[in-house]
């Protein structure tokens, strides 16, 4: 962190003296200064207090967090992550996995560990859990989820009960509708997608891709086609109440 080193130099302070004042080791402080270790939120606040910088180090920490998340998220998924806070309605079709916004922490960890080493999986997990906060904000978006029965039945036994409970809890919210597409339904669309709606701009569609490398569709004709496809799939789904009963049956059979 260049700013930390500059502040120390201006004040004529050694790394040992600053570390002692902050209650950390000079070795750790050195790694922060040379970018070997990421600064923590607590360190940023302590530095603001110590150097009386009026929140400058916290603002730098926040920018670092944003840059870290941007680097972790696959390039194809970034447009979706950036748009999500402005979405007023999600219409999701999930044929393979429980969508990230609905995953429990345990389920999300299993998904990430299947593709990433443990340290990166934990970082991605933190980003995913933070994204889920948009479902709990004061004015949350409407969410219509169509999920295949097989996705729920194929959940790993260790996390099935918790994941089913989360789905049921979310389905009880006024802004969330979950409908299950039964295994016997004649639905053969293999790729998941979601239609995103906004207050002041046209709908767009995000189409899932392997490893988060999906794509954003903005062509009006294609967006309309996929919106119609979503509604056709929805016509084959169980009603919300029946869907809840099926999810509860799967959960209790764990």
Task: Based on Cα principal axes, name the global outline.
Answer: elongated
Describe the main β-sheet briefly: 6 strands, mixed
State the end-to-end CA separation.
50 Å
Low confidence ranges:
none
Radius of gyration: 23 Å
So how many helices?
12
- Annotation, overall tally of beta strands: 6
Order of helices and strands: HHHHHHEHHEHHEEEEHH
Determine the structural class based on helices, strands and strand pairing.
alpha/beta
> Helicity level, as a percent range?
40-55%
What does this 3D model show about the protein?
This protein has 254 residues and is an alpha/beta fold. 52% of the residues lie in helices and 12% in strands. A 6-stranded mixed β-sheet has the order 3-2-1-4-5-6, with helices on both faces. β4 and β5 form a beta hairpin. α10 packs antiparallel against α12. The longest helix has 17 residues. It is elongated and about 75 Å long. The chain starts with a helix and ends with a helix. The model has no long low-confidence stretch (mean pLDDT 88).
